[in-house]
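Batch manifest, entry 17 of 40.
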Amino acid sequence: MRGRSILVILLAMLLCIPVTGSTSTTMEEEEVVDPCAEDPKQPCENQTILYLWSNGQSTFWSHFNTTEDSNANDNYWSEEKEQGVINIDQRFSMNPQMSKKLNMTLDGEIRVVLNIYLEGDWTNNDNDGPCTNDCEELNVTLWAGATTVFRQHIPQVSTGWNPITISHRITEGQTLWDASTANPSLQIQMKVKGDRQQGSIPFTVTGDIANFTLELSGNGDTRVEMPIDPTSWQGDFQLDIDEIMDAIEQPGFLFFTAITAMTVAAVYLPSRKDSDDS
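Output type: structure tokens
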């Protein structure tokens, strides 16, 4: 019995030895690989900040790389109108689509940092401008796919540049962001009204224009800081059930499983002769 067990174990070990040449490498041959180099627009352990981009006209997107060749040259997106309402409703969805799922740190802080320039009126019925019921104060919404992570109403803005910081703590139901259903996006909404017109005296004007200008992420100041937990970069976290089943169906996996079963049987299961002798 003992001899047979040893023979089967040695056979299993020999079958598992690869037939290719040695794959060992020296320390000098190993290269340090940047985990973000394969796809720099995706989140990774060195890139957890979402940046906002626009071509300066009608296209808006976001991703995790610090640079974007198609961003507006002056790093601004702006709308302006002398009379009437400009309707700001832009959504900076991640493009390309997020390719991996993320684990957010419970109670971790999301920080949205914006810089917005304003002229005109945006508060309804305050007797301090042309807005009646046709304006809307600033609202910022962070989305994970079709799910609202938070929506923040921001009335405390004024004419000129407004540095804005919004903070939100991740709740228990907001930790898992699946790649297929939780693509991140930031939505910015506001309605600003202008009433600039020719004055009664020639070459004079009265009222104010409506202007909304957003500084983009070309200098890194405009951003969404994400509390992505380090466990997100572990291989077993990224595996899903389909990938596990694919691994099981591989010939090598089945072969190794068969060898293991044969070894266990040889060691632990008595032969018919052993049973008869006892």
